[in-house]
Amino acid sequence: MEQNGDNHTRNSEEDQEDSGGPRKAALRIARLALHLGASPPEKWREHSFDVFVPRFLICGGGSLVRLPEMLARLELSRPMIVCDPYFSVPVAKEVNLAVLTSLLNGKFAYSVFSGVAPDPTTGSVAACAHAIRGMRGCDCVVAFGGGSTIDTAKAANLLLAGKGKPLRDFKVPAVADKAAFPLICIPTTAGSGADSSKYTVVMDTETNEQMLIGGLGALAVAAIVDFRLTLSVPSDVVAATGMDALAHAIEAFVSRQANPCSDTFALSAMRRVAKNVEIACGAKTCRDHATFLRAREQMSLGATEAGVAFSNSSVCLAHALAGPLGGLFRVPHGMAVCMVTPVATLYTLREGDGKQRYAECARAMDLLGLGGVSRTVLEEALLVVQLFRRLNKALQIPSPKQFGIPQEEYNTALGKMAYHAELSGSAANNPRVPTREEMVALYRKIYSKI
Predict the structure, then answer these.
(1) What is the DSSP secondary structure assignment for residue 352, as one 8-state letter?
(2) Which residues contact 93 (CB under 8 A, 6 or more apart)?
(3) What is the pLDDT confidence band of residue 21, given thresholds at 50, 70 and 90?
C-alpha cells in the first residue's frame, strides 16, 4: 500500500495490484479463476498443455565447433556418430565427416555408423542399433546429417531401449519415452525439424507402412543448428525440405492439438520459410551472396522452429497423405508433402473452422498484399493454397504422375494408401477429418496435380 503526499491511502484495485504482496497475488488468482470459468483447481488441468524441447539448442553459423563443449558439459566422452555414406567418403566438399571428427580427435573416443538409408527402414534402423550396441563404452549418439540420418539414430536408440521389442510396437498411439543413450542432433539440411522434435518416421519393410513413432525417447538432449552445414545442399533438396518445413509450421498451427506455445513457434517458422525458400534454393535471384547466406540461415532457424511447433502440436492431413506415397512408391518425404499439400489444404477449407486458422497463416506470411483489398476469411485462407501451388511450380515439384508412378499401380494402391494414411493418426488432428473414402478421392485428385 502506498500513501500520497496528503497521507491519503490509494485504494483502487489497480493501485492495490501495483503495490505487490498478498493483495496482488489474490487479484491474479481471482482473475485466473474467472478466466477458467470459476472452476475449482482440479478442473484447471483441462486448460494445461505440455511443452517439450531439447535441453540445449545451439544455433548460428559456426556453432558446430561447440560440439566438444556440449559433450563435456553433458559429461559424455564416447559418442557413436551416425551419418549417411555421402558424408563418410573422404572427398573435397564443404561438409563431410572429417569436419566433425576433426573436432573430436585426441579428445574423444568415437565410432562411426555410415549405413543410413535415404529413407529409414526397419532394416537400416536395426543395422544402426547393432553398430551402437557393438561399440565398447558408447555413452551417447551424435546424429550428423539430414532428416533420414536423425530419424535413423532416434529409432535405433529407441530400439536399443526396448530390449527386444520390434520397432512397430513403438508406433503411435504408443508413447516411446525411453532412449538407451543421450542423443545430440546436428542437422545438415533445413526442413525435417527432426533435430527439435520428439518424433521419428520409419518404414516397416514388411507392410510398407510409414510408421510414426513419438515420445521423449525420440527427443534430442541437444541440437546444434549451424546453417553453414546446409550451404552445399543441392537446390532441389533445399526446395523439398523447405516446403516440408513450411507444411510443418502451417499444420502445427491449424491442428486440433495446437496451443499458445506451438502457435508462437509455428507463426515465426512460416514467416521465415515463406519469405526465404525461393532465395535459398536459387529459384529467385538475390542481390548478393550475403542475401543468399541470410536466406539459408533463416531456413535453418525456421525448420527448427517448425520442429518445435509440430512436436508440441501435431501434423495433420497433408502428412497423413504423404506418408503412403513414400512407403509404397518411395517418393522422398519432403517431395511427397509438397505433392499433397495444395489438395489437402483446399479440402480442409471447404467446411468447418479451418479457414479461420489458415487465414491467420496468410496474414502472418504477408500474403494479403498492399492496398487494403477487402477479402472474406475464406478468400484469405485460399491464399495459402495459392502460395503452395505457386511455390511448387517455382521449385519444380512434380506430381505423382510426373514423378513416374504408373497410373494403374497408383489406382490399385488407393485403398491401401488411404488405410495407411488413416492409421498414422495425423488426419484425426486436421480441422476437417476425412473418411477413408474421402482420402481415396483426395489421392485421385493429387495424382496429376501439384
Answers:
(1) S
(2) 232
(3) low
